[in-house]
Specification:
Layout lengths: L7 H6 L1 E2 L5 E3 L13 H8 L2 E2 L2 H11 L4
Antiparallel strand pairs: 1-2, 2-3
Length: 66
Amino acid sequence: MPKLKTNSSAKKRFSLTGTGKIKRKCAFKSHILTKKTTKQKRNLTQAALVDKADMGNVKRMLCIGK
C-alpha cells in the first residue's frame, strides 16, 4: 500500500501540541476590521483548539493516527 499524502493546506493551518491536541488560528481577522472592537480583534489573535467534532477530519488530513 502506498504512503499517505498529508493535505498541504492543512499542514499550513494546523499544528500539534505536546499533549496531542490540534491548534488552529481564529477566523474573522483578515479584513473588514474597522467595525470590530479592539477587544474582539485582540481576542481573535490568540490560538484556539480544534473542536472534538472536527478532530477526526483534521487528523485524517494530517495523516495522524489511523
